[in-house]
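Handoff note, outgoing to incoming analyst
You'll be picking up this chain. Sequence as last confirmed:
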Amino acid sequence: MLWFVPLLPLLAAPVIHGVGKRWLGDDRGRAALALAGVAITVATLLLASVAVTADWGGTYRWSSLIVLSIGMTPASAVFAIVVPLIAAPIIVYSAYHEASSVSDGGTARSPVGLVALLTAFVGAMELLVLAEDFVTLLIAWELVGACSWALIAHEWQKTGNLRDAAWAFLVTRFGDLGLYIAAAAAFAGTGSFAFDELSRLDGWLLDVFVAGAVLAAAAKSAQVPFSPWLFAAMSGPTPVSALLHAATMVAAGIYLVIRLHTELSAVAWFAPVAITLGLATALAGGVVACLQGHAKKLLAASTSAQYGLMWLAAGAGFPGVALVHFVTHAFTKAALFLAAGVAERHVGSYSLNAMRLGRLLPGVAAAAMVASLALAGVVPLSAAWSKEQIVTAAGHQASWLAVIVAVAAGLSALYATRFQLLAFGRGRHDRMSEAVSRPGHSRAEAVALYLLAAGTLALSILWWPGVGNGLADLLSVHFPKTKLWELIVSLLLVALGVGLGAWAVRREVSRQQSDKRAAMADWLGLPTLTARGADAVMMFSHGLARFDDRAVDAGIRGSARFGAWLARLGERRGEGAFDGATNQLAKGIDWAGQVARRAHTGQMHHYYTGIAAGLAAILIILSIGVLL
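Most recent structure output, in case you need it:
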């Protein structure tokens, strides 16, 4: 029965695409499309919820060695419920959010293909989080990668979109090789692909397994140095960015870490590597977000930073904290992306300096403020609780680590404040009049945003006494005990970040960024450094090619020329000489034959004479031998 959870959206997606093409592009057609997409995601949510309580499972025997299996664990149950819960309002939003940007001046495209792909994306992610063996996981992993590429390249007519989709796809594909290595190591060590058999893995194969899993998860969750692919992913429509960053593509990496945490932590070097990766990404992503002037790229850098905090929590030995932060971050980040999309509809650009739509869009601004404050870590909102848990988890490793994590959280407050004030602060009248002249957003888009903001508010119940302990028991995890001084330091840094964010907005008067700041905002120049590295590799490759042409191939070409010269020489002179020698040999054999035939006279006395002559010759030879 559990197979129905991923198969329902996967099979429904082509049906929606085929039937949806017949619906009109008016409000009635969009309503029908939104209703179909939401019905599928809600049905998936209900099936997943029933599966949690009914203890469903599923297996399919492919061969004697390969068995596809899916099942429910506390971590997979959380992901299986959150994915469709986040996807439902995003699908509503996508049905009414035109695929072609207002700033392009193009005609609105039908959202049927986008809704169908988002529905399939939900099914692929459900299969990934329910997988109980590496073959099933790899199938789902490939489906998620293919869907993400198609969604990022959805508006393929725009210049650069296909290139950006290919870049994001290739970077994550490089990391995917690690998952194949991990699966091979698991099978070599246990003779099975099942997760249940991983406890038998040890020795160097265990190290190889962990290294492969870390590579795959780090690339998928956009950890340094793989983080820049998230900026390329921003070429996709706003609903794609919201779902990809909140609950699907990027979430796949941290899910793998949480799901296999017991096996990963069995290797001594996993914890320091995970903490280092997570901390470096949280700090780098925070700095990049603080410098970004592009609304979606600011949120993308924030996503990378927040997943870095989740990595740090898992490395510190608290995967349950990472799991809860995933949930709170999913609602927060999905709401902010939808808010950014609404703002872009009104100003025709994702430039934060072109927005300031607080007076024009008070409802949207209020919903975005709820999400921004949660992202900033302001008490008593939901993400603030999970963020404080991460600070406490870091403190269990070292006090200095808790302080650095609190600094990273302060950066979150800075860029969240900056986003809110620039996007939905009070603007000048000329910007308002310009925004009013552009087509706005629909009521359905606003409702989708309000639902996600309401989810963020509802999760604030985590601050209620006793809720955290009950949640820990429900998920079979443990949360660290909060220390008062860590909480005080963290909250003070959050307040400082909010203040600095407001100060930075007041000083941000120019729409143009300096070249240095633009390079820093583009992942601290990491893409440029990567491009230079790639250029250096290409130059080295071209040098090797020239050496091959001039040195290695020179001998081969010389041998070929010598062979051709011999062929020409043989053609001019050798053929006559060889033919003459052959003719002379034939004449000699003919002459010998004629001489031999003369002895064959048929007369017996001639034969006797020949025999006697032969015997005489033999006797003479023997006599000479005796004398010598």
